[in-house]
Design brief:
The chain has 615 residues and is of the alpha/beta class. 48% of the residues lie in helices and 14% in strands. It contains 25 helices and 19 strands. The strands form four sheets. The chain has a seven-stranded parallel β-sheet, sandwiched between helices. A six-stranded parallel β-sheet has the order 12-19-18-13-15-14, sandwiched between helices. Strands 6-9-8-7 form a four-stranded antiparallel β-sheet, with helices on both faces. The longest helix is centred in the middle third of the chain and has 22 residues, at 286-307.
Amino acid sequence: MQVQLRNYQAEVVRRVLSGIDRGLTKFAINSPTGSGKTIMGLAVAREVGGNVIVAVRTHNEMTRFYEDAKKLGLRHVVIGMRSKVHLCEDCLDGCDLEPEDIKCDTCKYYREVKKVLNAMGGDDDLDADVSSIFVAKVIDEKAIVFLRHPPDVDAKTLWNELNGCPYQWSRVVARYEWGRGNTLLIVTYPYLFIPFIRHAIDFGKPNLVIIDEAHNLDNVNTLLERVLNAKTVDNVIKNLSDVYQRNPLTSTYVQDLIHAIDEFYGDVDKVIKGVSTSGELKHVNMPKLKAALAKFNERITEISKRYGFSNVLDKAIQDAEELRMLGRRKKNYVRSFMNTLIMLQAAVTSSNTEWGRLGVYSDGGSLVIKPISVRPFITDFLRWVGDTPIILMSGTMPSKSYMRLAWGLNIDDYIDLSTTVRFGTKVINIDTDVTTEYRQRGEKMYARYAEKIKSIITGSVGGRVFLVVYPSYSVMRNILQHIGDLGVRQVISGVEKSITNLASQARSSDRLVIHAVARDRFTEGVELVDNGRSMITHIIFVGIPYPDISDDYVKDRIADSGMGRYEYLLEHAKIAIRQALGRGVRGPSDTATVYFLDHRFKYNRDWRIFMKTIR
């Protein structure tokens, strides 16, 4: 199918292709919502030819590339329109494990798929006599059904259609199509930035890599985040109890292990309780945490010796996995717990790991462990991809200097269309009577904000969905105490977590008010559209959405970035505003009335300049 590019789209495609011809490899395209970034990227892919990888942040975002690839006549395959977890038969009724905790090599369905992969020159752990005719039959009659299904098809239906694992069959088709050449492979971020997941698509180097919504690379480190709390520990203990009930005579170690885990979490709970009271991440007392972990390790060594195991946790993982394979329990929480312990051990014993420094925090009820920097992830990806051209695309791309300092990524050509290509209409209002500056926060200011928000909503003629954007959850909670009943349906981010439910409420309400926090899923991940137009007609910014500097994780990120604090905060606040604006203006027919409630939008020099770029 022939697609006519707009003039600016054709110019971007020409500029990128010219750069590739001159040996450039790192391109960034900053272009507003509705400008057709997907088409631009795929048009470059069509001209470059060969195999191309497209990486998107979420499975929902695959659909756009999937549909536009069809328009451009590009052969395309998808590894999972939903995550591995949500396609696993053991997790169809709900699973709170991480993908790396699901070990496919123990699954009977994977063994069948592995035979096919092996016959195609892929995984070589198993020998199999599988003819190429059989492989082609599988591709045509089975796996291709999965790759062409709409994303809303029920996963159980897919299992019935394929008589096997949809995720693994998608790997078969991806390898098959990749071998044919000129294939667009659509995946999510982990397939590029997590080495043990990237192995699943390492069929050979691509000719081009396209990374969509690339501003989200700033959070790629959270892909390895681990959490320990009362719920996760309770799941581990239940898992172990099932092991014991299955065979008490051979599982006598279980009771001692349960007691050790319970005692360990009791010590951890003392470390994390009271550290954070308003949801922000706070550093924990590392000497106390280290002592709790050392005490637990001693108990594990003691139990292992008592029962003659090299490591009783390894034995528990093995027994829990046998239970899972027998269908007695769907998830191996013991393995997940072990992976968290490994990461925690690295955090308390080393100042540097292969993923840089690990941060250990409390959010009031959980112990959170995660890498601080995104730099190691991007560096590892760049090492893998070599001199293959990379195109980063976003409507809210960070600055070139930010990507160089915070990400370690040097962009060869930064193509910025944000001030030359504009869609829709924004009606801008600035109120200078309020501010969320720290020194002026208090009940009086919160009450004043509440009155202004109520006045805007109740006094607006028309208007369908009002998106109120707060700088933090604590500010939102304080202001909501003063707002009360507005006479319309209100949804609060954090209380309501489902984007699907949010969209349903927006369609069924004459008016809806969404209270959300900058950078959360309701200000960045939501797309409320009806008949091609955005349902969000009013956006209210409550102050400037700087990252919360009372959050220790934010402080660690700033220190790691190589930037000054103000420069870092300014960069993130601008991106947060542009993201929220993109919820209201998504195309040329959209109009959004926007209220900026803070005097700094008018009187601060940096914000005066910024306001000129969004009008």
